[in-house]
Amino acid sequence: MDFALTPEQHSFQQLARDFLDKEVIPHRAAWDRAESVDTAIIPKLGEIGFFGMTIPEQYGGLGGDYITYCLGMEELGRADSAVRGIVSVSMGLVGKVVLSHGTEEQKHQWLPGIATGAVLACFGLTEPDNGSDPGHLKTRAVRDGSDYIVNGSKIFITNGTWADLCLVFARTGGPGPKGISAFLVPTDTPGFESREIHGKLGLRGQATAELYFTDMRIPAHCMLGAEGQGFSIAMHSLDKGRVSVGAGCVGIIQGCLESSIDYATHRKQFDRPLASFQLIQELIADMSVDADAGRMLVWRAADLIERGKPFGTAASKAKYFCSEAAVRAANNAIQLFGGAGYVDEYPVSKYMRDARVMTLYEGTSQIQKLLIGRSETGINAFA
Ligand code: FAD
Questions:
Q1: Which of 35, 82, 144, 219 has its CA 20 to 30 A from that of 254?
Q2: What is the DSSP string of 300-321?
């Protein structure tokens, strides 16, 4: 096994870190307080290539490999998970399924915009009554001539109020997962409405929305993939998304580790730097091990994707471990900082609030354990 990065991977990582150190980290606390990033950051992220990392060059992307994508996600997580989510939902959850399931026309219509950040996309799966169990979602799309008429609602949709494009999952057939189809819906379609959800614990810089569809008329050619294929498209997208969440969580752990080392070597108590106390080193050692272990799980899943091998269980393991480890690392970082960790002059309280949602979205920790358990035992314990 060769864990060394290629020169291209290394230079993208360095480029990403330099950019985020300059353009994001100095502003993240203010954006968090304002409950919105300065959206001028979005085209700048596009210029560096964050939105096009794994989109092929023929569709306006960089054509990078999956390890490079994970390195980008790690750097974004270290800098600001709210910004990471904006990128990973648009490019990762939506752009990549347009690439894998779209017609040539759909790819040419949407991917060049997504790859530069000129088009921002959102992923509309979760509904008020269906979160962990999206196979029973209720939004309905009824055929009417060459169109579908869509009615229903979605909740907790990242980028929902900012997006130009929404990947909407709606029921076109009978009950259960096989009755679901996916549609690429421009958000200026009449009948599409979004309302921002305020008061989130973390990820406050990104827009999270409720979506309402009222007699929304969508041409049939906006369907992504075949009728009834929507659930498998959503699961395919989330499997890859979980690797991205895992990578972002490694970035949170890395950020906690770096901040903690810096603070502990400068702050003195009992006439000695905090870093010289064994109990403080224990906190730092645990963060360091979690960062390395998490990175290995993420890179293994990324490597399986790159080689075209089954990667779903590896993605669940990476997401489960890294999200729980990010909460642990941020909690320990606050402990290490003492009172200073409780206010947003230092980044660790924001790391904690942002990390907390990672064990919830794109499949909760319980759902990941059920997926891993099913893979190990062959028994479905979901329902
Ligand atoms: P529920 O499904 O009601 O779960 C509640 C609890 O029950 C959890 O602990 C869960 O683990 C547990 N549980 C459920 N089923 C089982 C079971 N079979 N066995 C054991 N325990 C179980 N969704 C999108 O579609 N697009 C987005 O862009 C998006 N962005 C989000 C951004 C944020 C900030 C948040 C908070 C959520 C976002 N989501 C998004 C939604 C997210 O994916 C869901 O919140 C998540 O899947 C959990 O669903 P739920 O909230 O309905 O919880």
A1: 35
A2: HHHHHHHTT---HHHHHHHHHH
- The CATH code of domain 231-377 reads 1.20.140.10
Nearest CA to ligand 1 atom 5: 132
Residues 58-110: pLDDT tens digits?
999 999 999 999 999 999 999 999 999 999 999 999 999 999 999 999 999 99
Classify burial at 93, counting beta carbons within 10 Å of its beta carbon; exposed 0-12, middle 13-18, buried 19 or more: buried
Tell me the domain boundaries of the chain. 7-120, 122-227, 231-377
Whether the model clears a pTM of 0.95, i.e. scores above it, the answer is: yes
Ligand 1 atom closest to 370 (CA): 19
Residue nearest to atom 17 of ligand 1 (CA): 382
Q: What angle do CA 112, 101, 59 make, to 5 degrees?
A: 20
Looking at the domain covering 122-227, what would its CATH class be? Answer: mainly beta
What CATH number is given for 7-120 in this structure?
1.10.540.10
Ligand 1, atom 3, residue with closest C-alpha: 131
